[in-house]
Amino acid sequence: MGDRSRLCSVWLGSETGILKGVSVSRKQAFNFCNTSHLSRDQEVRALCWGDPAESELLVGSVDGTVKTFSLEKGAFTETRRCGDPADGCFTGLAALGGSALLTCGECGTLRVWREDSGEPVTELDAGKNVCRMRQSPVHPHKVATGGKENGLKIWDLERPEKPVFTAKNLRDDWLDLRRPQWVKDMAFIPDSDKVVTCTGYHQVHVFDPSSPQRRPVLEAEFGEYPLTALSLPAAGNAVVVGNTHGQIATLDLRKGLVRSCLKGLAGGVRWLQCHPSQPVVASCGLDRFLRIHSLEDRKLQHRVYLKSRLNCLLLASRDLEDGGAATDGEGATQEVKEEEEEEDEVWDAMEQVEEKPKRKTTEEEEEEEPEKKSKKKRKKGRD
Q: 60-94 burial, b for 16+ CB within 10 Å, e for fewer?
């Protein structure tokens, strides 16, 4: 198993269906695809590790298939049908013990699949318009779901009859009007039963299932645009959120205040992930860049252009070639440079052009002639 205290590589899923791996230490990018013809049906919408050793990567596509990518072989080894395209795109993908697989689609159907069965062994309805499903890192049998007009629900897969927690909507506003719900992402807070969510109405909420209150125990807001993704940093007591306008901020979960903001993004954020032990956060989205920021000094540490719109990412503690991820299989390797280095090279290679004095046009000369004549008349009159 790799050393989880270091960040060696990042795996990303793109709209074009290509699985991309970026080695941060080697400054190399790898493209993997198991088909000769790319289509939007192969678009990658979810990524997760297939085992704790990070030797297998599970890739969820728009067409309802889940592919297994072996990091040791550097190739896709298996494809499983885990749903129908009519169910919508994958909003969550997770591995369970004993080669079991957990999937959730936009339609809200949560399914558990066994390796030796083509039909789901467990199926439950989480409601319509689900935007995200997340698995608890401490208790893998617990998952959270939420979406548009579909509040936060926490499920125990060992007792799937009904959710163990259902969040209550916010109180009506000062005009006694109902406030809409739109859960976009969530995360389980370590060392507690609490769950933090972000919404499409630029809100951050913290729920505590252990308390009798089903409404949020903390409410905060950031910016004016829909929040799309969140992640919990290693330091704790904070959450990193991103929105549709490329703004990323760290919020304090004790007071609900904005601690800091990260700059440098040019498009909507689709995925965030904080490193489990280092104070860094990786982000990707519509501007086709992978960015890694420091949460301590807020500086941009890495910025890599990857040519495709990016939907999701996954941090890896082992390098792409540590486990023998071969580049002679289905992967295409290319050297990648930090974007700032490329810009410097372009400006250095440009030929310096000196501006020549602008020549006056005939129209400008004709306009100046009456002024010159009037000045001469004034001088004569004074004389």
A: bbbbbbbbbbbbebbbbeeebebbeeebbbbbbbb
Question: CA-to-CA distance for 112 and 121, rounded, in angstroms?
Answer: 6
Q: Is the separation of the CB atoms in 69 and 47 below 8 Å?
A: no
Assess contact for 271 and 15: CB atoms under 8 A. no
Among the listed residues 225, 236, 299, 235, the one whose alpha carbon sits nearest the alpha carbon of residue 269:
225
- Nearest CA among 96, 144, 91 for reference residue 122: 96
CA distances from 383 to 118, 312, 373, 380 (A): 108, 83, 16, 5
Q: Which amino acid is at 376?
A: K
Distance CA 125, CA 155 (A): 11
Integer Cα distance of 24 and 47 in angstroms: 19
Longest dimension (CA), the chain: 110
Question: Alpha-carbon distance 317 to 35, whole Å?
Answer: 28
CB-side exposure of 69: number of CA atoms within 13 Å? Answer: 33
Distance CA 120, CA 113 (A): 5
- For 19-32, what is the HEC assignment? EEEEECCCCEEEEE
What confidence tens digit (pLDDT) does each residue in 45-54 have?
999 999 988 8
User: Which has more pLDDT, 339 or 211?
Assistant: 211
Tokens of residue 247, six digits: 């703004």
Q: What is the pLDDT of residue 249?
A: 96
> 173-178: long-range contacts (C-beta < 8 A, 24 or more apart)?
none
pLDDT more than 70, % of the chain: 80
Contact 179, 173 (CB under 8 A): yes
| CA–CA dist 6, 319 (Å, integer) | 10
Q: β-pairing, 28-32 with 19-23?
A: antiparallel
Three-state secondary structure call for residue 264: coil
pLDDT at residue 284 greater than cutoff 70: yes
Does the pTM surpass 0.85? The reply is no
Q: Which residue has tokens 């990524």?
A: 47
pLDDT at 266: 87
Mean pLDDT of the chain: 86
Instruction: Indicate the burial class of 378 (C-beta count within 10 angstroms; 0-12, 13-18, 19 or more).
Output: exposed
- For 184, the token pair is 């976009």
